[in-house]
Amino acid sequence: MATSRVVREFSFKLNGREVKVRAPPAYTLLDTLRYIIRLTGTKDGCSSGDCGACTVLLDGKAVHSCLTLMAQVQGREVVTVEGVDPIIPQAYAQEGAVQCGYCTPGLVMATAALLKANPKPSDEDIREALRGNLCRCTGYVKIIRAVKMAAGV
Amino acid sequence: MLYMHVVRSRYAHARIRSIDVNKAYKHGARAVYTYDDIDNVEIDLEPAEGANLVHQRVLATGKTRYVGEPVAVVVSDSLTNCLDAAEQVEVVYDPLPAVLDPFKAMDPGSPLVHEEIGTNVYFTWSKQVGNVEESFSKADVIVQTQMWIQRVAPSPMEPRCTVANYNPSNNSFTLYASSQNPHRLRSFVAKKLGVSENAVRVIAPDVGGGFGSKLSIYPEDILAPMLSKKLQKPIAWVETRMENFYATAHGRDMHGKIELALSRQGKIKGLKAEITADIGAYPYGFAKAMPLTACRMITGCYKINNASVKAVGVFTNKTPIAPYRGAGRPEAAYFIERAVEKAAARLGIDPADIRRINFIKPDEFPYDNGLGMVYDTGDYGKALDRLLTISNYKHLREKQTELRQKGVLVGIGLSTYVEVSNFLPQPAYVRIERDGSLFIYSGTSPHGQGGETAFAQIASDTLGIPLDKITVAHSDTSLGPPGNGTAGSWTLASGGNAVLAACRRIREKMMRIAAHMLECRIEDLEFVDGVFRVRDDSGRRLSVEHIARAAYDINGLPEDVEPGLEAVTHYVPELTFPFGAHLAIVEVDAETGQVFLRKVVMVNDCGEVVNPMLVDGQVVGGAAQAIGQALFESLEYDANGTLLTASFADYLIPTAAEMPDILTDRTVTPAPNPLGAKGVGEASTIGLAQAVVNAVEDALGRSVEKTPLTPYMVWSILHAFEK
């Protein structure tokens, strides 16, 4: 039984460009990004929506790409860390908010979603917005500073 | 590329009656292997002297001893097919009673994890210094404590993974592995597959966190290359998060019974410590070494002339324990610092004062604690003073009194710790290229700590080469001499010193070449701002680039100097003893038991600092793990030994919302090594957890024995007295 040999075609906008991919219907957006499109910036930390490492923007909102089926992406707009406003990863690098880097793409995308909805967030706003993203290395303090730097607050 | 997935034991303890793989083949498996289909080699477990040695093979044979132990392995052309096929492998188990408590495991009638040794005891160990019984019989007060430091899951955000590629043309292997010590992995894989070390290349590219759990050599590390050769295809193995929870080594899990004999003034006259370590099913690296380190460091920052320590390591049907950030030193610091704080409360002495009374004095170093450790340098009073100053301690206590009068359960907890680090040697290879740029190779394997930056700074400082002309490489076994990876807070203290030594050797050679080219004596030269120049005649000068060009030109060199500009060093470290003082402030909600960690203040002394931003990263990052240990993280088992907390939904690691206000500072007491560095990677996991727990005890006015301090646990303690 070769389940992964049945494929469907999906069209969506990815980092500003229209793309068409052929993927098994059971594939998540994360599977498709990493294994088919080969954009490996988005990470798989748990495959179950608990850690946020797979966060991407779907129509501007932060979603877990590991829990998003390709059918949900059809005709919509996806932004990954490869296509995010560079001011955010630059702020992370400058503040020393990156250690092993595995959680970083997810955090950068959660930051992008936050700043879209709330361009001048308070510390509390930032903690709330990022509480869905687990980081085991940094302790979050420099991450919060990086978000503030990117926001210009 | 083929994918590999491991079929794992669902039982904590069971005999394997049969394994039927036929259905798996019908569901997409390309191949399925069990213990008698492969060269089922042994995993090299800890070679501890004086311990009861046991065995683990790559795939379980006859019996499984922990939930997650590999039983069979499935290979397929996609990860999805692998997972589907693995579900169809039919293993019939005869469950056995599970051994889950190390104390019960030592009862005579207990089921045995390893029948062949006739006991569940892995090792026992003891040591004494002074006259402990006398010190206890003469004491004014004896404080007895019991504490569990719970088992935790290191939980790096990247689970383990490997890609193994066999090259049949020369019987060699390339392994991409998420490993903290690629050279050690290379040695094991070569040995187990029967090839020479040179036939295995291990590359650990950006590793997504490890914290010690990626030091051990696991069955999958052998299986992937083995199957790659068997099937003549690259094999990829990716661990799921759930597998990371039960098939990747756990940390901590020690019980401590600590007794202090004190004078009424608070002087510690004697100490007795009994440590019981739950090893899990197999002794992975350091399983005996960690409890021994905990014993040897149990006297902490204090001058305790009479001490007896005992440790016992016990097998249980749980995941093997291996180093986790601190590896024995968090346990030591936790036990002694909690006991001392309890003693302070019992005697009515301020916890800062009782520590001061007992500190080893700055002029008493090197200090031999009689239990096997000679502390190099330290000034514990200075760190404590700094802590109390920057946290405005007096004012905090005043505020606490005020708040308590209003009925607020507010607590302040302290911890002064000393730890031991810098265990292993490291090589460095440094080369100045023809154009004056610099290549550094280190035997360490930084995976986010930023060691690369520190090495570049050291080299830039020593050789005058700008940072943007420096490349740092590591974690590719084909690039340089075998190193010991990154762990044990040794990347800078050992690896950095190796880089420094290599750079100094190159600088000496450059001096000789410069003297030759400038036609002067070496003594007449000085090296300032990247330029070699004649003292008192600074117009005669040569840049590093100039010398580099000359170094590769045999015509320009002195007769006794070989071409080239490189050096290899193997730095052998002395143990160093980082230390510090931490403080935590908590408020407890009496109705719900929830602990609000308001603020944490940490003063750490890691000797000379090369890069403050990197130090801060380690201190704050480690603090989050210490907070997790104290308040949130718990691996829960049911009566059958099934792990109930095998996802981040159940196993709670701190998020940004849980982090308190953090204030950090440092004192600098250099270590006696060329860099003066002591190491800081594990400082917070060693110093902070007990400060938080002490704060909660202070808030409740009641004793706490177990962590994490969940709301239910705290509520129960508060209401236990109301029955």
Automatic annotation (TrEMBL), chain A:
<dbReference type="InterPro" id="IPR012675">
    <property type="entry name" value="Beta-grasp_dom_sf"/>
</dbReference>
<dbReference type="InterPro" id="IPR036010">
    <property type="entry name" value="2Fe-2S_ferredoxin-like_sf"/>
</dbReference>
<dbReference type="InterPro" id="IPR002888">
    <property type="entry name" value="2Fe-2S-bd"/>
</dbReference>
<dbReference type="Pfam" id="PF01799">
    <property type="entry name" value="Fer2_2"/>
</dbReference>
<keyword id="KW-0411">Iron-sulfur</keyword>
<keyword id="KW-0001">2Fe-2S</keyword>
<keyword id="KW-0479">Metal-binding</keyword>
<dbReference type="GO" id="GO:0016491">
    <property type="term" value="F:oxidoreductase activity"/>
</dbReference>
<protein>
    <submittedName>
        <fullName>(2Fe-2S)-binding protein</fullName>
    </submittedName>
</protein>
<dbReference type="InterPro" id="IPR051452">
    <property type="entry name" value="Diverse_Oxidoreductases"/>
</dbReference>
<keyword id="KW-0408">Iron</keyword>
<dbReference type="InterPro" id="IPR006058">
    <property type="entry name" value="2Fe2S_fd_BS"/>
</dbReference>
<dbReference type="Pfam" id="PF00111">
    <property type="entry name" value="Fer2"/>
</dbReference>
<dbReference type="GO" id="GO:0046872">
    <property type="term" value="F:metal ion binding"/>
</dbReference>
<feature type="domain" description="2Fe-2S ferredoxin-type">
    <location>
        <begin position="8"/>
        <end position="84"/>
    </location>
</feature>
<keyword id="KW-0560">Oxidoreductase</keyword>
<dbReference type="InterPro" id="IPR036884">
    <property type="entry name" value="2Fe-2S-bd_dom_sf"/>
</dbReference>
<dbReference type="GO" id="GO:0051537">
    <property type="term" value="F:2 iron, 2 sulfur cluster binding"/>
</dbReference>
<dbReference type="InterPro" id="IPR001041">
    <property type="entry name" value="2Fe-2S_ferredoxin-type"/>
</dbReference>
